[in-house]
Design goal:
Function: Adenine glycosylase active on G-A mispairs. Involved in oxidative DNA damage repair. Initiates repair of A*oxoG to C*G by removing the inappropriately paired adenine base from the DNA backbone. Possesses both adenine and 2-OH-A DNA glycosylase activities.
CATH class of the largest domain: Mainly Alpha
Cofactor: [4Fe-4S] cluster
Distance between the termini: 17 Å
CATH architecture of the largest domain: Orthogonal Bundle
Structural class: alpha+beta
Number of strands: 7
Pfam family, one: NUDIX_4
Main location: mitochondrion
Bound molecules: iron/sulfur cluster
Shape: elongated
EC number: 3.2.2.31
């Protein structure tokens, strides 16, 4: 085993965290799911999505793209006039009775400027801001989780102008735990851009699309819900409902198919209540026409639903066959070593639970993954390196960034804590965590000298660390270290003034 310049005695222990992570990651793979093509019991129409024994493997008849002769091309799908009016009326009626009471759907109180047009504009802007924030939060996150974040956000930044004057750090802290932090940054930058433009909230899809981070979906949602523009929205829920309504089994991720869904949604959108109609379509997908167990029995548009109609005639087909399940892209495997550096300070500096201790945090670069967010010192690894190689990489980073080496600090404890896998949308990141507890030989000089020239860093105590808005990955690392200290450090928290260091 190599020795490192920040070597401290290793504690003989079995990391429960590591065991847990290993067990989790080595769990036997689940049996593969069977195809969604199952029989439907004609007498069980209230749950046609239920799986039954597979009978045959053919795709739904005459409905799969690329099939011969009678299979319609995706371009050919459209609604008849009767279908359009039937779907609009039924969905709006259903939505008026069943729409969920969500905070971003509440309408404002009466205006108070005394000018009806000004009051209307103000209310629309307020609504647009609320829809924008909620729609961005709802991307990749469940409604129940978003409600709390949304309420806290609105309390802190009740209007676009309040948000525009916030700092990125504040916004990131508020966003902590929602993931995909680029969304938060775009919200802030968008708010700043709109306020700087001085022309109020953009009111059409065309104008909204010029704001960073606002794509077709969010623009359609804001324009239709807040400003009554007659434009469609298409998200995953809408795709599912439309695919079932028209029995389209094409890959919904394919760009030609996506375009066609937008065309179909545009055909349906109600000219008098575009915002409510769009919300009703999304609401149906979220609450009734769900991926696995659609409630067809109580569905307001079951009469128009072609997937349901086919499933009733052909017991080898279920409505959940629509849309087809696209092939998932394989996630990239990456590895990183994280070192939680705890600096003990003050009189009681050798006690590992010293209330005067604190941690080093480093700010990530302003571009790329988790841009501008705080984390413990870390390095990316080429592959699943062993403990010595990881320490070598970390030592190099700590010396380059902070000048931390044996001439300026005394390591008290250095231990491997464990590892876990953190999932990003396209990356499986295996994170190896170690704890390095040290004491500085000359605190004043360290904190003064390392003037944050090459990277931005800060020293925070554990109380501040707990209240900081950290990403879920960083919180997992901290939780693992805390657990490790609780379970393992009592055995080894004796003073280690005589630790041997490599000079
Ligand atoms: S649209 Fe209605 S009837 Fe059709 S699959 Fe969805 S829930 Fe069932």
């Amino acid at each position: 085993m190599k020795s490192h310049f920040l070597s401290a005695p290793r504690i003989a222990f079995q990391s429960q965290f590591n065991n847990h992570a290993t067990m989790k990651n080595n769990k036997p793979s689940q049996p593969k799911k069977k195809s969604a093509r199952m029989k439907v019991n004609a007498s069980d129409n209230d749950s046609p999505g239920k799986k039954r024994p597979r009978r045959e493997r053919n795709p739904p008849k005459a409905l799969t793209l690329g099939q011969e002769s009678e299979a319609p091309d995706i371009e050919d799908f459209s609604f008849t006039r009767e279908e359009v009016s039937g779907v609009r009326a039924s969905l709006l009626e259903w939505y008026d009775l069943n729409g969920r009471d969500l905070p971003w759907r509440t309408r404002g109180s009466e205006g108070n400027t005394g000018n009806a047009q000004e009051d209307k504009d103000e209310e629309e802007d307020r609504r647009a801001y609320g829809v924008w924030v909620s729609e961005v939060m709802l991307q990749q996150t469940r409604v129940q989780t978003v409600i709390d974040y949304y309420n806290r956000w609105m309390l802190k930044w009740p209007s676009l102008h309040h948000l525009a004057s916030a700092s990125l750090e504040e916004v990131n802290e508020m966003w902590a735990g929602l993931g995909y932090y680029r969304r938060a940054r775009f919200l802030l930058e968008g708010a700043q851009m709109i306020v700087a433009g001085g022309e109020g909230f953009p009111r059409t899809v065309g104008a909204l699309r010029k704001i960073p981070g606002i794509g077709d979906y969010t623009a359609g949602a804001i324009a239709s819900i807040a400003f009554n523009e007659v434009v469609p929205v298409v998200d995953g829920n809408v795709v599912r409902v439309l695919a079932r309504l028209k029995a389209i089994s094409a890959n919904p991720k394919d760009s030609a198919t996506v375009k066609s869904f937008w065309k179909l949604a545009a055909q349906l959108v109600d000219p008098d209540r575009p915002g409510d109609f769009n919300q009703s379509l999304m609401e149906l997908g979220a609450t009734a026409c769900t991926p696995l167990n659609p409630s067809c029995f109580s569905c307001p548009i079951s009469i128009q639903c072609q997937a349901l109609s086919i499933s009733r005639k052909d017991e080898s087909v279920t409505v959940t066959d629509y849309p087809s399940k696209g092939v998932k892209t394989k996630q990239r495997e990456e590895f990183s070593a994280v070192c939680v550096v705890q600096i003990l300070r003050g009189e009681d500096a050798f006690a590992s639970d010293s209330s005067e201790s604190g941690y080093l945090l480093v700010k990530r670069p302003d571009e790329g993954l988790l841009a501008g967010l705080w984390e413990f010192p870390s390095v990316m690894l080429k592959d699943e390196a062993d403990s010595d190689a990881r320490r070598e990489a970390i030592d190099h980073f700590l010396e380059q960034s902070f000048g931390l080496n044996s001439t300026i600090c005394i390591p008290i404890t250095r231990e491997d804590v464990g590892d876990f896998v953190h999932i990003f949308s396209h990356i499986r990141l295996r994170i190896f965590v170690e704890l390095l507890v040290l004491r500085l030989k000359d605190e004043t000089s360290f904190f003064r000298k390392h003037g944050k020239k090459t990277l931005t860093w800060k020293y925070v105590d554990s109380e501040a660390l707990s209240s900081l808005g950290l990403t879920s990955g960083v919180r997992k690392v901290y939780a693992a270290v805390e657990k490790f200290k609780k379970n393992s450090l009592p055995k080894c928290s004796q003073p280690r003034r005589r630790s041997r260091l490599k000079q």
